[in-house]
Write a structure and sequence with these properties.
It is built from ten helices and no strands. The chain is mainly α and about 200 residues long. Helix 4 packs parallel to helix 7 and helix 8 (about 155-165) runs antiparallel to helix 9. It has helices spanning about 5-25, 35-40, 45-50, 55-75, 85-100, 105-110, 120-145, 155-165, 180-195, 200-205. It has two domains: about 1-50, Arc Repressor Mutant, subunit A, CATH 1.10.10; about 55-205, Tetracycline Repressor, domain 2 (Orthogonal Bundle), CATH 1.10.357.
Amino acid sequence: MARKSGSDGKKTAQVLRAAATRLFAQYGYAAVSMRQIAAEVGVQAGALYLYTPDKQTLLFQIMDRHMDDLLQAWKAESEKPLPVPTERIEQFVRFHIRFHLDRVDAVFIAYMELRNLEKENFAKIEAKRRQYEGLLEKILADGRDAGRFNLCDTKLSAYAIIAMLTGVTTWYRNDGRLSVDKIEEIYLCMVRGLVSRGAALKNQS
């Protein structure tokens, strides 16, 4: 089979990543073979190697694309920075929930399959995760410095908030009792409570 080029090649690569994402999320990276991915795409197994050298590279590509999309989407979302930290934290909460609910399988892989990345690939993905976490930490630090937030530790608070917000993807259902708008309001309420409790904890220490 000849190597595809141009738009056809790009389309096939996208289909390949989408198929691998579904299978990795459903069965786990270790349990999925390149032959299974090929069957999902509808091509011979050998044809996959025209688009990716191996399964490890494919896993990395899925995670790397997810992180790039996340960082680029936030850049577009925050192109005009809001001046008040309380408005910026609300912007972040709403953005994070909506972005991740649209990509449940990719989110699952991004967190659960980190252990299966080779050392060099892990370092690259971890660096982008830290970059994203740093964006929230900056919002929290600015809010603390402006006297709007009471936090014992901005880094740990950023970790806690992101973990809580990302957790929505594990239980949300389109036909559930809560709309996305309502979920945003509830989680925003919890985040506001978290950023205002640090002073009490600090006073007890």
